[in-house]
Amino acid sequence: MPDDEDFGGFDDEGGADSGSTESSDSGGGGGGLKRFLSGAVLKILLYVAAAIVVVIISVITASVVADGKESDTAEIKDRQGMEQRPPAYAIFEMDEFMTGLADIDTTHFVKLKLSLAYEGPNMRLQSELSDRRRQIEDLILLTLNSKVAEDLHTKGQKEEFKEELVKLINGLLREGEIKNVYFKDFMVN
Q: Which of 62, 71, 101, 140 has the CA that lies 20 to 30 A from 180?
């Protein structure tokens, strides 16, 4: 009587079972159902492994290409950002100002240190700024004296004050123009 592990006349090594009356069709020592099944399973496993390798290579390649495109995009944005940034201007330093404001009900003072920015190098404009330093200081002081503390509190108000100074100072100049005013210190009490 065959035991529970009988595979239809084949022993564990794939040959004919010694207790079986059936003989192998291949005629001597070979193959059998187990070998066929293990060969077919092996082929399937190889195909699956190859497919997994192809998928992994595809994912890695796509990732590298995507990273390259992202860095190219970031580089383009950096270039565009540099093009949109204001140029580095030449700077003309002004002395510190400390003066009273035009408030009537209370006394307010302003302490201001600023620089004038212009496209450089422009030696003629730099020389003119030096020659007109006292005129420019007087203009800034008179403009500050006409303001009340409420005119200089917010960022927007300070930006308006900058624009006003640029227009007034450029009205004095003949050898060029200033492009901006930079505040180094701006305190209102």
A: 101
